[in-house]
Design a protein that fits this description.
Layout (H helix, E strand, L loop, with lengths): L5 H6 L9 H6 L2 H18 L6 H16 L3 H17 L3 H17 L14 H40 L6 H11 L4
Helix pairs in contact: 3-4, 5-6
Length: 183
Amino acid sequence: MGEITPELRARFPQIIDYFDADTLGKLDQAEVLDRLDEAQDLYGKAFGPDVRGDLTWGFIGRAQAICKAAPRDETERQAQEWVTKAQAAHTNVAASAYLEKAAEIRRENPQAPRRPRAAVKSPEQLEAEQNMLLLKADMAKAASAERARQAREDAEYAEQVAGRKQWTAGAQLRWNREHRPAS
């Protein structure tokens, strides 16, 4: 169920009053925001530079119609029923009339386009994300330390193989492991 919050009332002061209480109760919050954004765009066009008075009222009328229209799902369901009847019609005249009825339903209930919105995250989700970032940083730090240790061991082993350092039991084990014939 959509609701008009004080933040929305402050952000869209001219447009909030276009909503009917009945329509608002049927909408989800994302659709309310989509309609407010679209109505705001139309309202901005209405009072843009070089706009004639009749166009101004047309833009305002479209903004009001978008805010008062039935929910997307309901409108599309009603229109789809008529499209289905048109597909099952026995004559082209009947099919045409049914398609016209579907188009009329869509015209009477103009819809605002869906807009991508970032999901609002709860404090728990934000904390979980922060913990995951810290865990990844710790894992990267440990992997870096392991690579540095392995590089030191490889350098020491190379020195021992070259005879510049004393040969150790660890070097002998590595030599046997690397040079043992495959069986």
